[in-house]
Amino acid sequence: MDIYVDGFLLAIPATRLHDYIRVASTAGSIWKEYGALDYRECVGDALDVPGMVSFRQAAGAKDDELVIFAWITYPDKASRDDINRKVMDDPRMKNACEGIFDYSRMSWGGFKTIVHV
Fold first, then answer.
1. HSE value, Cβ hemisphere, 13 Å, CA-based, for 58
2. What phi, psi does 5 have (nearest 5°)?
3. What is the pLDDT of residue 99?
4. pLDDT tops 80 at residue 23
5. C-alpha span between 25 and 5 (Å, rounded)
6. How far is 66 from 41, CA to CA, in rounded Å?
7. Which of 58, 59, 84, 98 has the most CB atoms around it within 10 Å of its CB?
8. Closest CA to 67 of 93, 96, 46
9. How far apart are CA 71 and CA 42, in angstroms?
10. Do 40 and 71 contact (CB within 8 A), yes or no?
11. In angstroms, rounded to a whole number, what is the distance separating the alpha carbons of residues 6 and 76?
């Protein structure tokens, strides 16, 4: 399994959802342009499951915030590193999400695929 995944969890103000969708749509196109296999951005809908840590809690979402769960897939980790470098250097990404959400509260990590059916 070489497919590599970057995963994201963040909270955004509910009033900024349309701004976030606009920026995420542009970002997704850029990631795919540079070789990402898939780019998904999802807004929380059913997040509070009794007896489990909720995604709202994990994201540190306030009452007026929505939870975003997102992932990007790549052919492998080396491709991910190369693609992410190109995306971060792309002028279309400069300050793209500034003011929409607090980066310091975002969770992000890279994941090796262990099952893919």
1. 16
2. -130, 130
3. 74
4. yes
5. 18
6. 12
7. 59
8. 46
9. 9
10. yes
11. 11
Sign of the torsion formed by the C-alpha atoms of 94, 99, 101 and 102: positive
Three-class DSSP category at 111: strand
The string of pLDDT tens digits covering residues 40-71 is 999 999 998 899 999 999 999 999 999 999 99
DSSP category for residue 116: -
Residue identified by tokens 């070789």 is 35
- Alpha helix (H) residue ranges in 34-67: 55-59
Stated length of the chain:
117
Q: Yes or no: say if 5 and 72 are a contact pair by the CB < 8 Å rule.
A: yes
What pLDDT, in 10s, does the model give residues 67-88?
999 999 999 999 999 999 999 9
Please name each of the domains of the chain with its CATH number: 4-95 (3.30.70.100)
Residue 117 CB coordination number (10 Å): 2
Q: Which residue do the tokens 């990631």 mark?
A: 31
Q: How far apart are CA 25 and CA 91, in angstroms?
A: 16
Question: Cβ(113)–Cβ(71) under 8 Å?
Answer: no
